[in-house]
Please model this.
Amino acid sequence: MAELTYREAVARGIAQEMRRDPTLVMLGEDIASAGGVFKTTVGLLDEFGPERVRDTPISEQAIIGAAMGASMTGIPVIAEIMFSDFLAVCWDMIANEIAKSRYMTDGQVSFPLVIRTANGGSARFGAQHSQSVENWAMMIPGLKVVAPSTPVDVVGLMAASIRDPDPVIFFEHKGLMATKAEVPDGEIIDELGKAKVVREGSDLTIAALALMVPRALEAANALAAEGISAEVIDIRSLVPLDTKTLLEAIVKTGRFFTVEENPRLCGWGAELVSIASEEAFWNLDGPSIRITTPHIPLPAAAALEDLALPSADRIYQTVSKAIDTRSGL
Amino acid sequence: MAELTYREAVARGIAQEMRRDPTLVMLGEDIASAGGVFKTTVGLLDEFGPERVRDTPISEQAIIGAAMGASMTGIPVIAEIMFSDFLAVCWDMIANEIAKSRYMTDGQVSFPLVIRTANGGSARFGAQHSQSVENWAMMIPGLKVVAPSTPVDVVGLMAASIRDPDPVIFFEHKGLMATKAEVPDGEIIDELGKAKVVREGSDLTIAALALMVPRALEAANALAAEGISAEVIDIRSLVPLDTKTLLEAIVKTGRFFTVEENPRLCGWGAELVSIASEEAFWNLDGPSIRITTPHIPLPAAAALEDLALPSADRIYQTVSKAIDTRSGL
Amino acid sequence: MPTDPRYDYALREPRLPRPVNRSLENADIDLDVRLGMYRKLHELRQFGKRAHDLFLQNLVKGTTHLSLGMEAIATGFGAAMKTGDYTFATYRGHAHSLARGMDLGAAMAELLGRENGVLGGKGGSMHLTDVSKGMMGSYAIIGAHLCVANGAAWSAQMRGTDQVAVAFFGDGTTNIGAFHEALNLAKIWRLPVVFVCENNLYMEYTPIDVVTAVANPAADRARAYGLEAILIDGNDPDDVYLAAQKALSRARSGGGPSLIEALTYRSGGHSRADPGKYRPEGEVQAWAARDPIPMYHDRLLSLGTPEARLSSIERQVADAINAATEFAKSGREPGEGSLLTDVFADGGSRWRN
Amino acid sequence: MPTDPRYDYALREPRLPRPVNRSLENADIDLDVRLGMYRKLHELRQFGKRAHDLFLQNLVKGTTHLSLGMEAIATGFGAAMKTGDYTFATYRGHAHSLARGMDLGAAMAELLGRENGVLGGKGGSMHLTDVSKGMMGSYAIIGAHLCVANGAAWSAQMRGTDQVAVAFFGDGTTNIGAFHEALNLAKIWRLPVVFVCENNLYMEYTPIDVVTAVANPAADRARAYGLEAILIDGNDPDDVYLAAQKALSRARSGGGPSLIEALTYRSGGHSRADPGKYRPEGEVQAWAARDPIPMYHDRLLSLGTPEARLSSIERQVADAINAATEFAKSGREPGEGSLLTDVFADGGSRWRN
Ligand SMILES: Cc1ncc(C[n+]2csc(CCOP(=O)(O)OP(=O)(O)O)c2C)c(N)n1
Ligand SMILES: Cc1ncc(C[n+]2csc(CCOP(=O)(O)OP(=O)(O)O)c2C)c(N)n1
Ligand SMILES: [Mg+2]
Ligand SMILES: [Mg+2]
Model:
């Protein structure tokens, strides 16, 4: 057992897998000698050497293309895209090539690769370095999508993503990098497609992801103080999606809330709410409500960014108002 | 009054606006001399000349960048991206630059530009030339998103999009190019953000877009034959979204269905259903149901593509089964 | 009507082919290799013509991009490449697929969207792939596959094999960003990859020089990546074969990437029923006179091959094409059974539990 | 620990600056212009240092990218550009913003995220923009703004003005696709645009030569776009000024684009608190000895300017920086009032009715 930060957990998860599989390689900008701009790859060059941990030019299409070509010919790859906003510069490679080629070729090729990227806001980096874009990836058939919220999950889901034979977009949250937790020694391997009930509750269900998980938990505590019992689910993996855990909770509690950091339109919260609305309609006791960043680019100033992202307080206020009004709780 | 095809309507709408505004220019691949690969820009080079109708290299980032830079300095622009799938190669320019720069600069710049693109399936072009990606655009704050289904709407919404001071992504559907309708003579100007009730009904509401509109109408006719009265709404504009028309219909009919051509996850149907679920919950008489392309890349073979895209028959079957089971209609 | 050749491309001066380089007759190429190339030229030509016929019969739906007139490039490279080497092609990939040995019937059936197609009908004309033959895919969005070819080359380098990746692409592709990124990375990592620009003078309907800052879109840019400028006659199988051999062996021996520009011309339109009206008078004819097939036929004759031997090859190819067509037509339409398969490596497409 | 200079960049040979070109002393540049540049150098330097201090005091949040040591480029171009010309910069855009006349206080307040910032706090350090001054934005994702600069130049061309667009970017930016697309389009459309590569030898923490196929990442690629290779001393305001004048007047007179590579060095880290440990021993020091400010100070002295005149400029700048800092600190934090404004041109962000 050792206390690890979220950022250290990234390197730990990668190192675990690079030790296991001597063919696994990494590439990205400033990941080798510098250990990554978020210091998530510190120590990997030293341990695994320059052939397996490679610095690249600022050529995101070339990075992802190299990952694609290598993985389809027998070399599993971890590619880093420094900020998730930059997925846009190589979106064709990801959405049109990697995601579709297995299907188009009737299963002739596989892409055992992980694209890791720093996602999300709260760092005051402004509109082009703060987006939550996990819904961009979720939209695209053929991609798996993972976004851990704790150091232990980072290690275990990193391992699961690397071992998965399909392309996984792995979102590391900038706002969680410095968070710490005890992480067990030895190999940790988690499973994709399993949500976690991080707080049991009976009155309502809140589904959250990444940085929104601690905020939802904080809101749930505040609600508990008023006698409202919220179940909080850390989704962890958007594709595959653990609809079973979600629907069970929704059926049990009768009310459903989602907390999304992405801007409102076509976020994963809409997908979850639409699933609830179709499959648990007769169990719902009131409207399902999405708490999201408004549909705006993210502002840079601390004061504005704090207003934009869902806060524990906003979650608390929204839920308690909704529960009050009409649910008949 | 003249009968026009959908593709001719595109050129007509553009020509109407280029006549009105002598500063308006166009650029794209093979749009000038060749009149576009979908023949949607035929005649424009002849009428407006090579300075205003420009062929470009295969450089989508340069195309969209040029549109951005010109529009922010006083020249309104229509840029063509040949297939909507290719938005992915210039997604950074669209999602990160054009969509965000007005907000980031506190309103210092505006982007009076239209990005036109051929969207959607049914042409047997395979996974990289058939996508419906209107949800990609809807996700991004700062973009307006339009997708007409008839020649008249093409002309009027094209004019409205060009006159709009904000960036509009204008989706022309490949599967509708050859469809014909009478189009009134003279200037036609429509309005963004207005859905159209294309069929009145009382039992349920079906919201559809582009190629799915005629299919929804066909399904509604089949339902009518069984005494089920479906209201059909052509959304036309995803941003701004006419939630008023949608919610009125949902409240009136008590049941809600969406027909999406995009693959299932995080489609605009999820957004609409989540709005219904939050704002019309107490008026819903049964589950809201999304009819979508499955979450797969589109196959090329005619037989497979026809299975993948929502058909009139699938819409009819899904609705009639849902209405049957439990709604208490 | 604009009558300015700058915009009305049909009014421009035609761009003419190079004359045949007679000295290639004496090149050090085995007769067997040459006869193999002759057969392949015919196979690619007959396949392309048949695909066109089937398109006009509405049996090939969607679209199809043929290499008629351009077959010498796929042929020369196909002959020079070794089993295990990787081919990455564009939507105009039929010739490259067949050059690596893709089954004619399975290829034809794919164009027809049949279950017995090489992709079960899922990919279609623009995505022919046969990994078992080293044909790593046909990519329909411009640029990407140059980057993917790098990856395959990198993989070969890491695995310590002597495989080489070859990416074929058009002149128009040299103006997209991915081209630039791919070339730079290949050079700095000294990857065993060969980039082959098939300069057929047009990006779809627009002459390449109208949209390109340099005269030779690939060769004039080689030095920007620390590479040698290589310009070859893409209508001469021997010239292609020799250039391919050189570049492949450089790559195999750790010498890194090459960029080759092969000048050629497509005798038909860009795709489907494009009549190619944007081409100036005389241009198509001039290039038809430099068609690789009669030229190579003459070369083989002048090297002493009997006419009978050549015509027997032609007949064999014609039979094979007919058989392939029958095989394709006999295939069933794919159905529900394959719609939802092979999105993911578990064989399915489930995104939820 | 790897001790191989190929991977442990701090172990490499340092890359040294060029010696001062003494002949530039005699260049035909007005003394007024030179004194203006001297003032601007100081302004940019003092602003950068103050921003750094405020960052360490946690008053600037997020990140900040300074141009310390690189000020001669913004200065030389700022002096040569005319009102109405367009500047497009990167996240490292403070110097370029001030060089075009952005208000010091409004710039500083933006770094502090205050309501009185030039962007009301919405954009932050990486997005400084002042359209009223021709400063058309700072772009934080590599590559895009070269394409956007083309658009502004195209617009000037269409409107028949003599405006020129200038895009500044780093050495690392030459390896991204958008660079390639922008240069090609600029050339074929003969756009009035100047591309200025500030080669400070590093892309973040990686030496540029490790990831680039040619020695001079911009100059060695100019010919791939039919352009002249231009390599200048980016630490010498006079050299920059002269190159800028030439490129601007070529653009204004319809001669089309230029690509200029200016050699320079950032004396600090890439951003925030980066200590720059990846730089070999002696390199920072060697470049410090070629710092543009003392060099230009000496040049002005040797041209006969009295020391008192120079020190009075320095004092004026120091006062202005202090005033700007006070102005910035006095600003309020922005609030709800501006959160939802100016997504769309109607001033709001409504996506529904
Ligand atoms: C990114 C992208 N933009 C545009 C297209 C549409 N398109 C298909 S082929 C083609 C022309 C390609 O020209 P070239 O590279 O010379 O190849 P050729 O077809 O001549 O073999 C274009 C523009 C595309 N497929 N991808
Ligand atoms: C597309 C993209 N990839 C990566 C980054 C992260 N990044 C920011 S600055 C930088 C280095 C840029 O180097 P250079 O172009 O030399 O400019 P400099 O910072 O030295 O001025 C990188 C990689 C980015 N902003 N955009
Ligand atoms: Mg071509
Ligand atoms: Mg640099």
